[in-house]
């Protein structure tokens, strides 16, 4: 069997760059970084870093603000990794969550009408988060199976597998951070507890947890 074809989504193309993943990792570790700081940390040319940041910003992974100065000098642009608070100010993020929720509701109603299966009922808002997560994983190129009852996601055929070895696991840390951001942006009680790389042959496991369940 041949290797899985690389997905062609814009999300995958954005995250398939080792340099952009490194920048995301730096911003997840500490926010409000300047272009000069990121250039020094990565060793990349300023124009290259600027282009990567623009791509990450368009994808909704990075935000920027212009600092307020009390002294003379040109104000600097400060870059941060996107957080859950961005859904309130970013219409694209809000539309993405709403679209994922609509698709998830349609699929869930169809499945329940054809093969009813009793499952633990998730509290209000949790299903919206699960739908947003499913959409994010799909757009990122992951083959993911979400068990809503067990709050576990089994991921196979990772398209970033080569990058995992080259980055010494940094890619997995970045993707866990992105998952946490997606769940936070969707709003609800579900959080990502851990991402276990290579939990089985060709498989990784994402463990979720929920603040409370409805009876």
Q: Would you write up a description of this structure?
A:
- A four-stranded antiparallel sheet has the order 3-4-6-5, covered by helices on one side.
- The protein is of the alpha+beta class.
- It is globular and about 65 Å long.
- The chain has a single domain, classed as Arc Repressor Mutant, subunit A, CATH 1.10.10.10.
- The N and C termini lie far apart (45 Å).
- The model has no long low-confidence stretch (mean pLDDT 83).
- Helix 6 packs across helix 8 (170-186).
- The protein is built from eight helices and six strands; from the N terminus they run ααααββααββααββ.
- The longest helix has 24 residues, at 91-114.
What can be said about this structure in brief?
The protein has one domain: Winged helix-like DNA-binding domain superfamily/Winged helix DNA-binding domain (Arc Repressor Mutant, subunit A, Orthogonal Bundle), CATH 1.10.10.10. The protein is globular. The protein is of the alpha+beta class and 215 residues long.
């Amino acid at each position: 069997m041949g290797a899985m074809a690389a997905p062609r989504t814009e999300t995958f193309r954005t995250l398939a760059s080792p340099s952009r993943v490194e920048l995301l990792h730096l911003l997840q570790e500490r926010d409000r970084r300047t272009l000069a700081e990121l250039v020094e940390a990565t060793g990349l040319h300023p124009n290259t870093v600027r282009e990567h940041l623009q791509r990450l910003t368009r994808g909704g992974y990075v935000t920027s603000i212009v600092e307020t100065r009390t002294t003379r000098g040109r104000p600097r642009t400060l870059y941060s990794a996107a957080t859950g608070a961005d859904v309130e100010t970013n219409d694209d993020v809000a539309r993405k969550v709403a679209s994922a929720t609509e698709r998830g509701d349609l699929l869930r109603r169809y499945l329940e009408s054809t093969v009813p299966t009793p499952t633990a009922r998730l509290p209000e808002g949790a299903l919206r988060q699960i739908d947003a997560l499913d959409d994010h994983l799909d757009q990122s190129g992951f083959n993911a199976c979400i068990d809503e009852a067990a709050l576990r996601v089994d991921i196979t055929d990772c398209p970033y597998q080569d990058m995992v070895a080259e980055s010494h696991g940094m890619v997995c840390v970045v993707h866990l951070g992105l998952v946490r951001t997606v769940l936070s942006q969707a709003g609800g009680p579900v959080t990502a507890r851990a991402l276990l790389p290579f939990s089985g042959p060709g498989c990784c496991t994402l463990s979720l947890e929920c603040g409370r369940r409805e009876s």
